[in-house]
Amino acid sequence: MQAPRWDMWVDFTRLYDGLTHSHLEDVEPAAVIEPGRHIVVGDYDADPAVAQVVDVTANGVVLLRVLPVHARLQTPMRSTVSGSADWVHDRTKEGFGPDTGG
Question: Could you tell me if residue 32 is inside a domain?
Answer without folding.
Answer: yes
